[in-house]
Amino acid sequence: MRLGKIHRIELPTPYRVGPVNVYLIDRKPRTLIDCGPNTRRAREALDRGLRELGFSYRDIERVVITHAHADHFGQAARVLEESGASLVLHPLEWPKVQSNYRFFGERLEVFRLAGMPRGHIEMLSAADSIERRHILPLDEARPVFASDGDDLPFADGNMVLMHMPGHSPGHLCVYDPGERLYFSGDHLLRDITPNPLIEAKEGSGEHEHTLKQYLATLDRLYDLDIDLVLPAHGPPIEDHRVVIDLAREHHRQRAMLISRLLDGREMTVYELAREVFEDLHPTNLFLAVSEVLAHLDTLCDEGRVEVRVKDGRWAFKAVVDTPAGPDGRG
C-alpha cells in the first residue's frame, strides 16, 4: 500500500488475528508505527518490506508503539538497535515491555475469582514463557512518554497522539487532522471487535472496567473528522462511523445475551464464558473470559447485575425488580 508518504508493510504473526500492519511515514523524522512480533518470518518480512520501498533501518528515525502486545512491539528492540531511532509510547505500556513482565501471571488472581479450573489457570500461567519467545524486551530503551493530545511533530506539520484505552490501558492512536487520517492500532478494526482485555491491578482481583473505557473512546472517535482509518489488522476503513456503530451493536447484543443467561441463575465468569462461546477452544479462553467479565462489570455498574464472593469465586446474578406494593414501595 502506498498513500502519499505513508507505506503499509504487512507482517505475519503466529496469532489467530493474522498479519499485522506496520506503517512507515516518509516524512522527517521518518517514523515507523509498530514493529511486529519477534519471529523469523516477521523479521524477514520487515527487512524485505523496507528494502522494496527503498529504505533501510538506518532511515528510521522514530518508532511509535501503539500498545504493548507482542504482535505490535515484539521486535522493536531490534529495530531500535539497528536504526538508532527514538521510541514513543504511553507510560502505562512501559512496564509491559520489560523482561520481568508476565502478562498472564499478573492476572492469575482474576482468573481464580472468575472461576477458572486450576488446570486452565496453570495452562495460562505457562503461556507466559511461550509469549516471551515473540518478544525482545525493551529494558535498555529510553522512551519518550506520550500523553493524550501530545503533538507528534514532523518537519512539515504535526500529527496528534491520542490515548484510547480499553483494549490496552496505554493504547496510543495517531491522528493527522490535516489529512484526516487515523492510525488506529487495535482500537478500531473492520472485521474484528477488539477485545476489552482483563487488566489487573498489581496482581490482585481488582481490575479495570475496560469495556467502559473502550466504549467511551469509541464515542470520542465517532466525532472526529476522518476520511481514512489505517488499522493494525485488516484493510483500511473509509466509513469509521459505520464500523463504530457495528461495534456498539455487538456489545449491546452481547450484554443482552449475558443478562438472559443470568435470568434466575447465579453463575461465575467462567461458566458464563462457556455458554456464551459454546465451541470455546482452550487457546481462546483468556479472550472469552475477558469479554464476559468486561460486560459483567458494565452490567454491575448499570445496576442490572450484582456480584458476591461465594466459595472464593465471583458469583453473578441478575437484579430482579421488586414489584411495588399498595403504598408504592417495593
Keywords, please?
20% strand, 330 residues, Metallo-beta-lactamase, Chain A, alpha/beta, seven-stranded mixed sheet, disordered C terminus, 15 strands
Shape descriptor reads globular
The helical percent reads 25-40%
CATH class value of the domain at 2-102 and 133-245: Alpha Beta
Rg, Å, rounded: 21 Å
Number of extended strands: 15
Total number of helices? 9
CATH topology of the domain at 2-102 and 133-245, what is it called? Metallo-beta-lactamase, Chain A
Oligomerization status of the protein chains: single chain
Tell me which CATH architecture of the domain at 2-102 and 133-245 applies here: 4-Layer Sandwich
Question: What is the fourth-level CATH superfamily of the domain at 2-102 and 133-245?
Answer: Ribonuclease Z/Hydroxyacylglutathione hydrolase-like
Q: Termini, distance in Å?
A: 62 Å
Tell me the strand order in the biggest sheet. 1-2-3-4-5-6-7
